[in-house]
Amino acid sequence: MNYENILTSNDKGNLEKLNKECNYVFSKTSLLKMIRKYRKANIENDFKTMAAIDYRLTDSNFHTLCSLLSIGEYTKANKHINNEYAAMDLPF
Description:
- The protein is mainly alpha-helical.
- About 65% of the residues lie in helices and about 0% in strands.
- It is globular and about 35 Å long.
């Protein structure tokens, strides 16, 4: 998705700040919520929300998940998170 036409530099700064605050790490639960939010935004043609999620995921190097969302592969995205990040919500 082309962020330049949708997100302002202020939007990008705020999203980068959020990523820095969480050290560019998301819990498995957070990632699954992003998938649901992205899917809902896609249904509602909410391109700004979709761009914001894409931007955060790309900024945090979640490129595979971002790619799956951009082509509408929500089931594969969920499976990817559940398989690749199975231990993410376990206490250390």
